[in-house]
Design brief:
Belongs to the peptidase C14A family. This is Caspase family p20 domain-containing protein. It is built from twelve helices and eleven strands. By secondary structure, it is of the alpha/beta class. It has two domains: 98 residues, Death Domain, Fas (Orthogonal Bundle); 250 residues, Rossmann fold, CATH 3.40.50. The strands form three sheets. The protein has a four-stranded mixed beta sheet, sandwiched between helices. Strands 8-7-10-11 form a four-stranded mixed beta sheet, covered by helices on one side. β5 and β6 form a beta hairpin. α2 crosses α5, α6 packs antiparallel against α7 and α8 runs parallel beside α11. It is elongated and about 80 Å long. 40% of the residues are buried.
Length: 368
């Protein structure tokens, strides 16, 4: 069951204990949809008969429902409505909606006062649609790693940020290792004429790699290589940005992968956790316009909040929301690092994001 659904059941438990009726219709719907077994139904009926209805409801909410899979919560809501307990279902729906609104950040970018045509020493960003932002979010790892339920908030927040920055946003979910590569290669072959390309990859991972839903690793270098000047000539002189995150919440280790951004008419690349290498004469141009950002410095652990998502993603969204109309990319990444440092001090956690391999030749403003 999704962590937000578990939290909803816990926070609303006093109300549910008072209002839920363990009627024949209610239990029948749950049984028909395999949310409860015949044995569990018998036990609930016995508890209700021999103790109290509240005791049966408590047993169902704490010992049965949270363990019955990702679809159980919505079936539970339907069973409530089908057994004339709409007011209970409405209460839970309203709580979830309010909780999601609180978890999703409000983004209201100010308009830049700079001219996109006349700013000297900056990459040209002139298309009405700045570019394409691709978000890949791996949530379910088929038992190989913990589920990343709260990453839904990261997707919502990042997608909204890039829409406000005038990007077309495409979202993909649950890709295995080969699927991550193929998804990015497909997007590469269909890039529109624009200024910037962004790819955000959120997943479990470790040093220099992210994991597909099959538990197989994808090297960050291989992701960056998809968009080099030879394989993707349209981006040869444009921005490529990669950011990587590994997060831990409630004792469960999780890792979020790269965010790639590419300016298509004079851009910068954020590469993530790439080893330092001396460029050869034949590859030097392909290594320009890059910058790598990771959610942690080497050796640190990134953290995730079950009701908010990644502090790293929230820091990016907050900084860009307040300063994208004034500051260029590298300065904003420095601000994100400081925000993470201050957040870590407050919570006695060591986590700062790290910028590496910056090969920008100009300043990049998003011109919101």
């Amino acid at each position: 069951m999704d962590s937000s659904h578990k939290k909803c059941l816990l926070k609303n438990r006093p109300f549910l204990l008072k209002e839920i009726s363990m009627s024949v219709d209610f239990l029948g719907h749950l049984s028909a949809e395999s949310v409860i077994t015949e044995e569990q139904q018998e036990r609930l009926e016995n508890i209700q008969r021999n103790i109290t209805t509240k005791a049966a409801v408590l047993h169902f909410l704490s010992q049965i429902l949270p363990m019955r899979g990702p679809a159980a919560f919505n079936i539970f809501l339907k069973a409530l409505r089908d057994s004339e307990q709409d007011h209970v279902a409405d209460q839970l729906d309203d709580w979830l909606k309010k909780n999601e609104e609180n978890s999703c950040m409000k983004i209201n970018l100010q308009k830049t006062k700079m001219s996109t045509e006349s700013t000297k020493g900056c990459y040209k960003v002139t298309h009405e649609t700045r570019g394409l932002a691709v978000i890949i979010n791996n949530v379910d790892f088929r038992g190989k790693f913990d589920k990343r339920d709260s990453s839904v908030f990261d997707v919502i927040n990042m997608a909204e940020l890039f829409r406000k920055l005038h990007f077309e946003v495409k979202k993909h979910k649950n890709k295995d290792a080969q699927g991550i590569i193929k998804c990015l290669e497909d997007e590469r072959s269909n890039l529109p004429e624009s200024d910037i390309f962004v790819a955000v990859i959120m997943s479990h991972g470790s040093k220099n790699c992210v994991y597909g839903t099959d538990g197989e690793s994808v090297q960050i270098e291989d992701i960056i290589d998809i968009f080099n000047g030879t394989k993707c000539p349209i981006l040869k002189t444009r921005l490529k940005r990669v950011a990587s995150e590994s997060d831990e919440s409630d004792g469960a280790s999780q890792h979020d992968g790269p965010l790639v951004t590419e300016l298509q008419r004079g851009v910068t690349d954020l590469n993530l956790d790439e080893p330092d290498a001396q460029p050869t004469e034949s590859t030097e141009n392909e290594k320009l316009h890059r910058i790598v950002v990771t959610s942690t410095a080497l050796g640190d652990t990134a953290w995730r909040q079950s009701d908010l998502g990644s502090p790293f993603i929230r820091a990016i969204v907050a900084v860009f929301n307040h300063f994208a109309h004034l500051e260029h990319l590298e300065d904003m990444i420095s601000m994100v690092t400081d925000v993470m440092f201050q957040w870590g001090k407050k919570h006695s956690i060591t986590q700062i994001c790290e910028k590496t391999r910056a090969t920008l030749t100009k300043k990049l403003y998003f011109f919101p």
